[in-house]
Amino acid sequence: MTPKGYAPADSFESPRFSGVRTFMRLPAVSDFEGVDVAFLGAPFDTGASFRVGARFGPEAVRSASHLLRPYNAGAGVDIFQHVSAVDAGDLSVVPGFIADSFTRIEAGLRPVHEAGVVPLVIGGDHSIALPELRAAAAVHGPVALVHFDSHSDTWDSYFGQPLNHGTPVPARHRGEAHLAIA
C-alpha cells in the first residue's frame, strides 16, 4: 500500500536507531504542502512551579516514538493511508520569559493553522495552552478548551503571577475575542 503523502521511514530499510530523532521517524519538514498533521515540540517549562523538565519532553517523546508502528493490527488501520504527517521541529521559546515565549509559540503555530494543517504539540508545561488557543482562534475563530488533569489548574494567579502552569487560561484572558473555555 502506498501512503497518502508523508509517512515514517520504513524500519526494514533503515534501522530505528539511525537518522535524526523526529516523532515516529516522520520526515522533518517545514513546508506544509501536502501535509495534514504536523508534530511540533514546545520545549518550555518556565511556567512550572514544581518538577520542571517539560522542556525535555519533545526530545524524550521523539526518542520513545521510534518504536511506534504506523499499522494498528487490532483495528486493521495504517493511519498513514489516511493522513500525511511530518515533524515540523520545535517552536521557538525564550527560557525564563513566559510572555516572550508565548508570543513566539503563537507566532510559530499561526502558519501551521493558516496552511490548514492540524498541529499536535509535544511537551511544554500547561501554560502553553494559552498561546496555542490564541493561534488557533486567530485563524479559525472561536475555540474552546477541554482540560483533563488531576486538578483543575484554573487559578487566576499563582504567586501573584497570571501566567504559569496553574493558570493555563487566567481569568483576565478568558474574555479575549474568540477564546472560550469549556
Q: Which CATH architecture is right? A: 3-Layer(aba) Sandwich
Kindly report the average pLDDT value: 83
Beta content = 5-15%
Q: What is the name of the CATH topology?
A: Arginase, Chain A
Shape descriptor reads globular
Per CATH, the class reads Alpha Beta
- The radius of gyration over CA amounts to 17 Å
The parts where pLDDT drops under 50 for at least 5 residues are: none
At the fourth CATH level, what is the homologous superfamily?
Ureohydrolase domain
Largest sheet, order of strands side by side? 4-1-5
Reported for the largest beta sheet, the result is: 3 strands, parallel
- Distinct helical segment count: 4
User: Total strand count, please?
Assistant: 5
Order of helices and strands: EHEEEHEHH
How helix-rich are the residues, as a percent range?
A: 10-25%
Q: How many domain regions?
A: 1
What is the structural class?
Answer: alpha/beta
CA distance, first residue to last residue: 41 Å
